[in-house]
Each structure stands twice: as C-alpha cells, then as structure tokens.
Amino acid sequence: MQDRMTAQETADYLGVCLDTIYRMARKNEIPHARIRRRMLFRKRSIDAWIQEQEMSSLDTNR
C-alpha cells in the first residue's frame, strides 16, 4: 500500500463507510489534504490520528 490513500482506500482501511470519511474530512476531524476536488490521506497520519484517538479515550476513562 502506498503512503497516500484515496477517500475510498481510507474508508476501507478504517472499515467505515465512504460517506463517513467525507463527513469527517469536511469537519476537519481526520487529517487529509485536498488537491482541487480530490482528498488524499497519508497512512502515517491516519495511524497517528488513530493512536491519538485511543489515548484520548483512555484519558477520559480515568
């Protein structure tokens, strides 16, 4: 897998619906880059973002 992923590839990678990825990107809830009408996602950034989500959920459970 390349470091860059399309919205569909990101949805598949995360196991969510494509609409969820677009919605999260519009709200700037997920790291992405926009090149004209195309959204690109870096696998490294998505992995780091997931780790941040996990850590923040642990902090709120304390």
From TrEMBL:
Segments forming domain Helix-turn-helix: 5-53
Protein name from the UniProt record: Helix-turn-helix domain-containing protein
Pfam annotation, one family: HTH_17
SUPFAM superfamilies per record: Putative DNA-binding domain
Organism per entry: Alkalibacillus silvisoli
Cleavable signal peptide: none
